[in-house]
Amino acid sequence: MKIGFVGCGAISGIYLKNITEVFKELEIAGVCDLIRERAEDAAKAYSVPKIYKDMHELFADPEVDIVLNLTRPYEHYEVTKAALEAGKHVYTEKPLGAALEEGVALAGLAASKGLRLGGAPDTFLGAGIQTCRKLIDAGIIGEPVGASAFMVCRGHETWHPDPEFYYKYGGGPMFDMGPYYLTTLVNLLGGIESVSGMARVSFPQRLITSQPHYGETVTVDVPTYITGMMRFVSGALGTIFTTFDAYAAEVPRIEIYGSDGTLSVPDPNTFGGPVRLYRPERGEFLEVPLMFGYPENSRGLGLADMAKALAAKRDARASGELIFHVLEVMSGFFTSAQTRAEVSIKSRPQRPAPMANSRLAGIIK
To answer: In Å, how far from its chain's centre is CA 344?
Structure first.
């Protein structure tokens, strides 16, 4: 299937590389970017056949099967909406939208037109988290009873070349990094039925010390310290903590607690390991060998799976239902923080099917 890129910013490089070198059932139809030079650089580096003058020209190209939306979070809604209205399937970077209302509108539009939505993150399809999924499904830690997740950092203004959008509409640690953690938890434990949360803006202004905006000040418009609790449909309970307000921490990324053991899950922003298992018989954590492919940076794996799902008429793993559920959960934390009440989650996505190993690298089963 042929992919049309909307956006050729920093994240596009790994998609361009993997589509041209790894995922053999995908082909790049063309690219576009508001800054044409970026599109020209991408086309030159990866022998892309077309540079579109804008996204609407891309949408009108009958050769484009799936639009890859790599714009900034607050732009996701308008780009995805326009692509769906033009009759194109869409795979979008996370999150689906910058607000729940945007997700509701996009899901409804896709359904009304018989089109597929899919989206990042797809790290949960990699070797590390799929190994965790296999261990949980095999009962190695018994019945899962709880989970904890931590994403702790001091923000992006000291190193990112353009950090302002992380503190604006559609940004913040929950909407930026929460999708990795929540998507992983749903893959491992199933859907979430209710949430509660607390949130605050710890530092109303941020001083940029990275180039090229050194010395500029950013006004923070979104919470940067968010804690949440989750009740899974299975009955398990979970906690999640995301912040841009802490210099350092000594906490795990994700742990799953079961009746017969504990599973230490690798960083959900990566595709590999380590996977570490605690069983009471041994009394210590031991590393488990990875049992699946794609331990390296395999962004585009979810897109490749979506293309195969369209061809095979099966459900995609990084599906529209999954990314909508994650958006609803994230929005629920903020609603709970405002109302000081537990919030019910209405969506009930299918737990994504586990990955199947293939002897042919880059071919998805």
So the answer is: 22
Q: Cis omega (within 30 of 0) on the bond before 252?
A: no
CA distance linking residue 285 with residue 282, whole number of Å: 8
Residue 2 CA to residue 337 CA, distance in Å, equals 43
**Domain spanning 2-119: which CATH class is it, in words?**
alpha beta
Query: Which residue's entry shows tokens 């995805």?
Result: 80
Structure-block tokens of residue 193: 């039925």
Q: Per-residue pLDDT tens for 63-118?
A: 999 999 999 999 999 999 999 999 999 999 999 999 999 999 999 999 999 999 99
Neighbouring C-beta atoms of residue 352, cutoff 10 Å: 21
Query: Residues 32-50: pLDDT tens digits?
Result: 999 999 999 999 999 999 9
Superfamily name and number for 127-288: Dihydrodipicolinate Reductase; domain 2 (3.30.360.10)
pTM as predicted: 0.97
Determine if residue 288 is left, alpha or beta; phi over 0 gives left, psi from -120 to 50 gives alpha, anything else beta: beta
Which has the closest alpha carbon to 216: 153, 152, 173, 167?
167
- What ranges do the domains of the chain cover? 2-119, 127-288
